[in-house]
Design goal:
two-stranded antiparallel ribbon, alpha/beta, Aldolase_TIM, TIM Barrel, 13 helices, monooxygenase, globular, 2 domains, eight-stranded parallel β-barrel, Nitronate monooxygenase
């Protein structure tokens, strides 16, 4: 499974454990590196830049392999500039940028040797970040959890590969080895996997959240724009059904006003993060739990290493079955 991802970061398997707000933990990244993959954690999982700096120090000390930081690069992230400066100081192996312009990250962190990988949902934006100097893109497809894209992986990955000169990594919909095999067959350099790792022993979310990932399925995933102002997939719990998935009249009006739009996004993002924070640590379904449709295949709570081992075993079986059919 040698790809740009494995060769560049010296990992065994071309898998990124995706950054998940208030789900990812330092322990998860440590275990990911032991399992032969690499993990990424949102900078916003630390509430202040000072706490984020301490987290970077701990990651540097504890991770045996490469690790990454995810930075939201738009005005909703009030700590963005400080987070970028700290990444330039401590030089994580890679940074994944989301929901905005990666220019400042590339300019400040490239000189320290940090690779910059950008989340993209379409070709237009992918070309922009390529021109700015991104090292690779993550093609966020319609099967992703959280901020999913509109296009299936079977279309998005080949489209980007045909038109870009930088590596393409796929994100969304992978929870089985056969799924991993099918995505890699499209020619991507690796995958970013998130939702299956919510239900891990190392995850910092509540047991109720983990159990929801096990007990709910693909049919229970709905798109909501109430969490961050950007469409986001959540589990359709009774509480989500009660509050709805669309912004209210005031939120919509503010979002459409050019002068107020920036502040509306910041307000919605703040409100949403508080809702997700409550969901992450509260043992009740009357909260908002982010996840993707790949939870369909999550049957129990495991360790990070157990999930990776299962994925690779299933992947190898899928390859063997494919080769047997061809012979």
């Amino acid at each position: 499974m040698k790809t740009w991802l494995t060769e560049t970061f010296n990992i065994k398997y071309p898998i990124i454990m995706a950054p998940m707000f208030l789900v990812s933990s330092i322990d998860m990244l440590v275990e990911a590196s032991k399992a032969g993959i690499m993990g990424c954690i949102p900078a916003l999982n630390w509430r202040t830049p000072e706490e984020f700096e301490e987290g970077l120090k701990e990651l540097k000390e504890r991770c045996e392999g490469p690790f990454g930081i995810n930075i939201i690069v738009n005005q909703s992230n009030i700590h963005m500039h400080k987070q970028i400066d700290l990444c330039a100081k401590y030089a994580p192996d890679f940074i994944i940028t989301s929901l905005g312009n990666p220019k400042e990250v590339i300019e400040k962190c490239h000189p320290q040797g940090t690779k910059v990988i950008c989340d993209v949902v379409d070709l237009k934006y992918a070309k922009k970040v390529q021109d700015q100097g991104a090292d690779a893109v993550i093609a966020v497809n319609s099967g992703a959890g959280g901020h999913a894209g509109p296009t299936p992986a079977s279309i998005l990955v080949p489209l980007l590969k045909r038109n870009l000169d930088i590596p393409v990594i796929s994100a969304g919909g992978i929870a089985t080895g056969s799924g991993l095999f099918s995505i890699m067959a499209l020619g991507c350099e690796g995958v970013s996997i998130g939702s299956p790792f919510i239900a891990t022993k190392e995850s910092i979310v509540s047991d109720a959240y983990k159990e929801a990932v096990v007990n709910y399925g693909a049919k229970d995933i709905v798109m909501s724009n109430k969490i961050s102002g950007t469409p986001c997939t959540v589990i359709n719990t009774p509480y989500v059904q009660k509050i709805g998935t669309e912004q209210n009249i005031v939120e919509k009006a503010m979002s459409k006003n050019k002068k107020l739009k920036k502040y509306a996004k910041m307000l919605t993002g703040y409100k949403g993060m508080k809702a997700v924070e409550k969901a992450a640590f509260g043992a009740t379904y009357k909260t908002v739990w982010v996840a993707g449709p790949s939870i369909e295949f999550i049957e129990k709570i495991e360790t990070v290493q157990e999930i990776v081992k299962r994925l690779i075993t299933e992947y190898e079986t899928a390859v063997e079955e494919f080769l047997a059919k061809r012979s």
